[in-house]
Amino acid sequence: MNYRELVKLVVVRADAQQIAERLLDVVMTSYNAGLVTPNEGERLADAFQSDRLSDADVLESLLELAHRTEPEKFRSLIEELGLRI
Amino acid sequence: MKISIELAPRLPLWALRILSSMAEKVGFEAVWLSEHYFNRSSVVAAAYLLSHLKRLAVGVGVLNPYVLHPAVMAQVAASLTEVGPGRVMLGVGAGDVTTLEALGYLRKDAVERVRACVRTVKGLLQGGGLNDGLRLDFRAASQVPVYVAAQGPKMLELAGEVGDGVLINSANLPHLRDSVGLVRSSASRSGRSVSVEAELLVSVHEDSKKAIKTVKPYVAVMLAGSSADFARVLGFDEDLLSRLKVLVGRGRWLDVQELIPDDVASALSVAGNPREFATALEGLPIEELDGLVLGGPIGPNPRPAIVEVHRALMRSISRGARSAPRSSAQRP
Predict the structure, then answer these.
(1) Is A59 part of a structural domain of the chain?
(2) What pLDDT sits at residue B321?
(3) With an 8 Å Cβ cutoff, are A21 and B303 in contact?
(4) pTM to 2 decimals?
(5) With contacts defined as CB-CB under 8 Å, which chain A residues touch B305?
(6) In Å, how far from its chain's centre is CA B246?
(7) Distance from the CA of A67 to the CA of which of A24, B2, B252, B312 falls in 20 to 30 A?
(8) Closest CA to A42 of B291, B46, B13, B89
(9) Over the stretch B315-330, which tens digit does the pLDDT of each residue have?
(10) Optimal mutation site among A48, A50, A69, interface B, most CBs of chain B within 10 A
């Protein structure tokens, strides 16, 4: 899946910050959070602390990580935005 | 009123950092990191958070003197002050029976063990060599307040006698006022000032049932580590308590959620939707405390829950301040 392209589609349909926070919560509350590598997690924490969660590159990571840790929730969220994967 | 949050390092370090950063942003003063051998190390997590956060104080613990020598506790605390000077706190407690048994330790003479431990730790942190030859060959970069985690009356009194602070266990929630009184009386007899802080197991979510379900594993761990007498008062006879201990020991949290009734979870925690949470806070003797430590899951979705609990708590405190009788000095 091309997450960079997906970011472009997502940000025209919803508030980027809100979507980023929802994706972050999906990843953090997942029983599969262990699938996030320490480096990927570090980048998320850096972005969160510096209020850059909705930057395109961070949103791209969040989409990928949400898909990896919670595929069903990820699919629901994407469909909620009127998109199909 | 010092408002702290407690997080369990069952989460990856990066997630702890995000939640701690959220807590820092909304105005919490400190984060405590609980210590369980089956989670990530609270000491490592503390070093990590101290290096990434600018303002939040970080508490380790509680550590117990059965598993860790007091000199090692002092070494850990003093080392952490080099990462975050002025922001390190140390919690010392006896540890819960179930966990200690799993590690092969017998929880014996708990009050005396903790007393000796706190004295040794404080002595070493103050830079002196001790009579038994123990010493630290470096000095802590700042003072480290040593908190005593306490549940039973003797430990509460000890906390008042030797601790810089006390963390009153959430199990004491139904009789929190009495617990505070025990610590204050003991501190007064010893001519000391102690920061009296209560730990609460907290879970907030719009769906009240979900909030209560989420707090149950935390209640179970606490209950499993409590005395049979304490559990009996809550309707847990020996057989039920044994089953609970087995489930907790094996980490079978879904079964634990089935076993713990909602009313027991509610009695030992502050869980529910935001309105229920605010109402429950109103019933607590907050004005008698120096601090509150909001622990447990915080909510099924902890990041937004951190914002919610802090907002509700601030409202409750400001209402309390408005309704409290003014002292004579304030009267016109």
Answers:
(1) yes
(2) 62
(3) yes
(4) 0.93
(5) none
(6) 24
(7) B252
(8) B13
(9) 888 877 655 544 333 3
(10) A48
Out of A25, A29, A45, the one facing B17 most closely (by C-beta) is: A45
Q: Would A13 be classed as within a structural domain? A: yes
8 Å CB contact between B256 and B220: yes
Best residue in A26, A29, A52 for a mutation probing chain B (most B CBs within 10 Å):
A29
In tens, the pLDDT along B64-111 reads 999 999 999 999 999 999 999 999 999 999 998 888 888 999 999 999
Instruction: Give the start-to-end residue ranges of the domains of chain B.
Output: 2-201+286-322
Over B159-226, what HEC string results?
Answer: HHHHCCEEEECHHHHHHHHHHHHHHHHHHHHCCCCCEEEEEEEEEECCCHHHHHHHHHHHHHHHHHCC
Show the 3-state SS of B89-149. Answer: EEEECCCCHHHHHHCCCCCCCHHHHHHHHHHHHHHHHCCCCCCCCCCCCCCCCCCCCEEEE
How far is the C-alpha of A60 from the C-alpha of B211, rounded, in Å?
A: 31
**Contact criterion met (CB < 8 Å) for B52 and A49:** yes
Two structure tokens written together for B104: 């092969």
Q: What is the pLDDT of residue B332?
A: 30
Q: Domain range for residue A15?
A: 3-80
- B194-230: per-residue pLDDT in tens? 999 999 999 999 999 999 999 999 999 888 888 788 8
C-alpha span between B203 and A63 (Å, rounded): 27
Q: Domain spanning B2-201+286-322: which superfamily?
A: Luciferase-like domain (3.20.20.30)
User: pLDDT tens digits for B285-322?
Assistant: 888 999 999 999 999 999 999 999 999 999 888 877 65
User: Is residue A85 in some structural domain?
Assistant: no
Domain membership of residue A36 (yes or no) is yes
User: Alpha-carbon distance B321 to B244, whole Å?
Assistant: 41
Q: What is the ipTM of this complex?
A: 0.95
Instruction: Give pLDDT, residue B330.
Output: 38
The pair phi, psi for residue B260, each rounded to 5°, is -85, 120
Average pLDDT (B109-126) is: 96
Calculate the alpha carbon distances from B188 to B58, B122, B181, B185 in Å.
27, 20, 10, 5
